[in-house]
Amino acid sequence: MILLQVDILRMIADFIGVIFLYSKVVLTPIGEVMKLWIESVLNFIDTFIPMRYEIYIIIFIILVVSGVIINYHWPGEKKEVKEEEKKEMDVSAKKCKYCGKPIGDSEFCPYCGSRN
Description:
- The chain is an all-alpha fold.
- Helices cover 63% and strands 0% of the residues.
- It has three helices and no strands.
- The termini are far apart.
């Protein structure tokens, strides 16, 4: 392959290969544990309810809906913007004297086309 003849690309490919090779020692036990607990939960559910595709679809819908609700209510870290910074941001944008929309540093308004 012509791309691997370039030395830097070969070095990058070797580096990524080494990372995957050594991370296998850590990731394989984690994957085994995940597989074991999911199988045990499904076997526990199977004792009470015969497993059909509808159960998997219901579990999928519950997980997706709960994920959407959780991310909507707790979206993560947000930077708090103070009122002074908001005013500075509003003042910094030049506005059109005819339509009042922000035009930035432009000489012509992109909305109404007037020259300022």
